[in-house]
Amino acid sequence: MHAFRNRLAQYSDIPDKVWNVIQDIGTKPGHFKAGADIIRVGEITDSLFIISTGWATRFRTLEDGRRQIVNFMLPGDIFDLQALARMEADHSVSALTDVSILSISPQKFIRKMRESGEVSSAFWWAAVQEESILREQAVRLGRRSARERIGHLLLELQRRMNGALGSNAEQLSLPLTRVDLADALGLTPVHVSRTMSAMRSAGLIEEHRGLVLIRDRQRLARLSHFDPDYLHLRKLDYSRFSEDTPDVPSKVV
To answer: Signal peptide position in this chain (predicted)?
Structure first.
């Protein structure tokens, strides 16, 4: 739960009493080897999951075998909230690396949400961030060039991993193949390779044995039109709101 707490702490300071409620939510550990399915399309999921360690991917596969990766799930991410409604999964989730997860019973989850408004707000923020990431993925695919897509995704993954680890590293451990990146970005593996080679030559990134070093974050952000506001990483100050204040914030900042 360490990565999950780091992630939630980006949204709001989590008092120990609130964190104790979250820890007491009742989780069951599990482990999946790289390549294993965590959720299969068409299944009715009976648990929510929090990733403790490792990377997973959410994707759809067409009838002819083509795959579209919708997003990558990192330590501290929670999925799939559709378990609350016992709906059939309309996508699949697979482990990209060895993955350790914590599963949560929907009944226990709902009970804790009812007991604590602060806990509910923390999980609500996690859902808001995931929705924002999915919206940005649509923009990435529809309007950005190949270099912009790759640079934007690298900056997003770096920012999210730093949040999960509580760090500010320029280096990103990237367990993704060129095929993974191509399936996420609507490109071919060859196009991904050529574009990343050009990015290395331009001094934007370095690669070495599964590690990507972003050499100039500001320059890459400018070239990729990367604005981290959609990740909602600036903390919400609860003290601005009180029971006597009817206004609801229009945007989480």
So the answer is: none
